[in-house]
Amino acid sequence: RRTHVLTMATVSITNFVTCRAPVAGARAARASTGAAVRAPVAVASTNGVSLGGARQGSLAGRVGARAAASARSARRVALAAAAAETKEAAPTAEVEEPALESDAGVDYTALRDLLKAGEWEEADNEHRRLMCVLAGEDAEDRGWVYFTEVKQFPVKDLKTIDNLWTFYSDGKFGFSVQRKIWIGKKRQWAKFFKEIDWVQGENNAYRKWPEEFIWKKEAKKGHMPLTNALRGTQLLNALLEHPAFAPPAKPKNAADQAAEAMEQMGDNLKKAMGGGMPGLKGLKKPSWMK
């Protein structure tokens, strides 16, 4: 019986040990699992360190970009300041007065001096005298210019006169200024005269010369020089269409040239026949037409 009891006890102990072994195994498994679970935590911690480094790098990049932008802005400010100093230090270039050039041997000194002094009415009188000088002795004797005489005005002389007017009026007066206004008004004289203030009132009556014209720099653009248009606009038209101010004429095409040639041939034929074919009035019928 004792032997049996010992045997049973031995078996129980063995069973106890055996039963304890799985418990120990489970604990070991749990420990291993815990280590495995904690491992990702370590990895996650490692990743956290990596992400933190990226954030710090991004922040450092933004700080660097801002510093570079500030440096560029400061450089632009410094360059602008240097340019302003250079501009202030540079001497102001003086604009040269128009040269008194003439192909007709005319002296424009008096006109220049009057315009320079702002003596507008006296300058206009001198200008009108110079027009007669350019037209020739006949024009000087009569005191005014025919429109047909404008063609002989040298380009250089008209440009000299115009340059003096535009220079000393700061671009307000002169033939070239008047031409631009005239072209802008589609060559319509009534609108042109009103624009340059040569007419007044509801009826657009011509101003009386010289008392009603405005002899000031504050006058309307194109108000001077004056050209008498009471007897018609042919003289002013010839001046504004002069090669000194008008662009060169476009070359004529073959059709236009042929038409002009035919017209010229017709004129020559009429001249050769004594003014054209005689009429039939006064002619007797021939005997065979009775």
Overview of the molecule:
The protein is mostly helical. 60% of the residues lie in helices and 1% in strands. The chain contains 9 helices and 2 strands. Strands 1-2 form a two-stranded antiparallel sheet. Helix 2 (109-116) runs antiparallel to helix 3 and helix 2 runs parallel beside helix 5. The protein is extended and about 105 Å long. Mean pLDDT is 78; it is low at 1-52 and 276-283.
Order of helical and strand elements:
HHHHHHHEEHH
Largest sheet entry: 2 strands, antiparallel
How helix-rich are the residues, as a percent range? Answer: 55-70%
Low-confidence stretches: 1-52, 276-283
Give me the secondary-structure category. Answer: mainly alpha
Q: Can you tell me the overall shape? A: extended
Number of strands: 2
What's the rounded overall pLDDT mean? 78
Rounded to the nearest angstrom, the radius of gyration is 53 Å
Total helical segments: 9
**Percentage of β-strand residues:** under 5%
Please give a handful of descriptors for the protein shown.
single chain, 1% strand, extended, mainly alpha, 290 residues
Report a brief summary of the structure.
The protein is mainly alpha-helical and 290 residues long. 60% of the residues lie in helices and 1% in strands. It is built from nine helices and two strands.
